[in-house]
Amino acid sequence: MSGIVGHLLILTAFVSCILSVFSFYRAAEYENDDVDFFRLGKLLWGVMTVCLFSAWLLLIVLIATHQFQYNYVWAHSSLDLPFHFLFSASWEGQEGSFLLWIIMNCLMGLALLRWAAPGYRAPVMAVVAFCQVFLLTMIVGIKLGPIEIGSAPFATIAEANPDAPIFQSNPDFVPADGTGLNDLLQNYWMVIHPPMLFVGF
User: What is the residue extent of each domain of the chain?
Assistant: First the structure.
C-alpha cells in the first residue's frame, strides 16, 4: 500500500509540473505576474513540492522500518545500519539521488517565486519547471509497453526482478535483510555531502 501511495505522489508531482510549465509559459506571454496563469503555476508548483517532500519522507520511513519488499530499501539498507546511515540511504541510490535533486529544485523554485524580480518570475519559472519535468521522468516509473520511463523508487523487489527464480516459485517472497549501504559510503561525509552539494549547485 505504501508503494502505491509513493507512486501516486510522484505521478501527481509529474502531472503538476507539466501543467505548471504551461501555466508559467502562458503567464510569460502576458508579461504580468498577477495573471491567473501565474497564480495557477504557483499553486501547481506548491502541489508538486508537497507531493515530492511527502514521497521522500515516505521513502525514509520505509527504509527506517526495514520494508525489504521494496527494491530500493533492499538494495541500499540493512538491519545493522544506524539511523544516520539509514537516513542517508534515502539518497544513496540513483532514484534517491534524483529525488533529492528534484526536491532541491523545488526549493529553488520557491525561492525564485518569492524573490525573483517582478516581470521575470513567469519566464524564469517556465524554464525551471521545464527542466524539472525532465528530472521527474527519471523517477516516474511509467511503463509504455516494453519501454519504462524512469526508475520508480517505490517498485517492489518482485517488480524490479520479475525473472528472478525465487519469484517464480514464491511471488510473495520478502528478504530477511537488505544488501546494505556501500562500505565506502559508510562515513559521516555520506550523510552531509549530497545535500551540501545540491545546495551549492
Answer: 2-157+177-200
- CA atoms of 176 and 38, how far apart (whole Å): 50
The C-alpha cell that represents 139 in the structure block? 523517477
3-state secondary structure of 78: coil
Measured between alpha carbons, how far is 115 from 124 in angstroms, rounded to an integer? Answer: 12
pLDDT in tens, 103-151: 999 999 999 999 988 888 999 999 999 999 999 999 998 888 788 888 8
C-alpha cell at 186: 559508510
- Give dist(CA 60, CA 53) in Å, integer: 11
Three-class DSSP category at 149? strand
Q: Alpha helices of the chain — where are they, by DSSP H?
A: 2-30, 36-64, 71-76, 83-88, 94-115, 121-136, 157-160, 165-169, 188-200
Asked if 112 contacts 124 with a C-beta cutoff of 8 angstroms, the reply is: yes
How much is the pTM? 0.90
Closest CA to 49 of 23, 12, 81: 12
